[in-house]
Request: fold
Amino acid sequence: MVNVQNLRTLSRVALILLMAVHVATWYLWGIHAVGSIGIEALFSGLSRGVFNAGFVFWILVLVSAVILGRTFCGWFCWFGGYLELVEWGIGSLKIKIPRRMLLYLGVIPFVSLALKVYNSLIVNWIQGFPTTFTFQLADVEPWGGQQTGISILITLIMFGPVLFFAFGRRAWCRYLCPIGALLKIFGIVGLCKVRLVNDNCNGCGTCNRTCDMQVDVLGELKTHGEVLSSNCIRCLKCTNECPTGAIGFNFNRKETSLSDDASSKAERISLKRRRLSAFDIAITSLWASIMMIFFFLGFQSSSQEIKVLMTPGLLLVTFGLVWIVQKAWSRNKISEPTHFQ
Ligand code: SF4
Ligand code: SF4
Reply:
């Protein structure tokens, strides 16, 4: 039988090859047929009244998300593939950078997405909403002029190894990625989901431990019989690793539920991933406020290198503030995830 994880690797290798061909076609061979498919190209085109290659690509991504949820993140995002490669390479180095309250930093991508939309779309639309639209696939060049070699290098280091040691596996995808923020909605809406397919689950928790996105798989199965988390990227590592074959990736929900024994194990195993408190929300708001202040003080006009450095930088500043407040608030009863993944 074909191994799903090999298929996933294959899809991302194929995507990187396609990207290489795309860039070579444009810059080496001078064939300007299909332009950038990046989300910036989409916003830029819409703001000028152009349906470009970015528009077509993101329509396809959204349609796939309605059917298959965040499959794009798990199967086709080259950056997600890079992160998994980095984590595979350095994952055995158990370097721990202390961290707290990370679960609720989930608001960051939404702020980031809002800024991106504001920057690329609304500012232009305020000056005049386009009344006519044209169709032009080659509208924006594939590799925009903003990136430099240094900014790409910083991006790869900061968002790969640094975020991994600070915040665990696929931290960029869970907390920072604006595209992930957009597609999170489809974690719930997407028709095909990870679901219980029989009553064989023994509550071993392998699914929780396997999940790069730190989804409380077992808790979700206990509560809903399926995974509704907005962080599920349909990588299918959990279904692959489940020793009893109790979960699958299906359109339909089966009439089955966890046994009492598995449910009580689920209660214990998933506890760490379900702590919510007003304190956490306050910290998240703080991060968002800092980000907004920096943005309006000149983040918009900074160089690409500064922007790339600022995102994790602000995250770490917030993290430091959390640390200080927590120390001062020594008797608070907040639990934190302690399991390093
Ligand atoms: S719940 Fe399963 S399919 Fe979803 S991200 Fe986690 S391991 Fe992948
Ligand atoms: S679904 Fe599978 S991996 Fe998850 S707890 Fe049940 S038996 Fe273990």
